[in-house]
Amino acid sequence: MPIQNSPYDAFSKLLSASGHSCSPAELHGVLLGRSCTGVGFDADNWLADAAEVLETEPVDNVRNALIGLQEMVKGELTGDDIAVVLLLPSDDAPLAERAAALGEWCKGFLTGFGVNSGGLELSTDAQEVLQDLAAISQVQDALEESEDGEGDYMEVMEYLRVAPLLLFTETKKSAEPAAIKPSLH
Question: Which CATH fold would you assign to the domain 7-171?
Answer without folding.
Answer: Four Helix Bundle (Hemerythrin (Met), subunit A) (1.20.120)
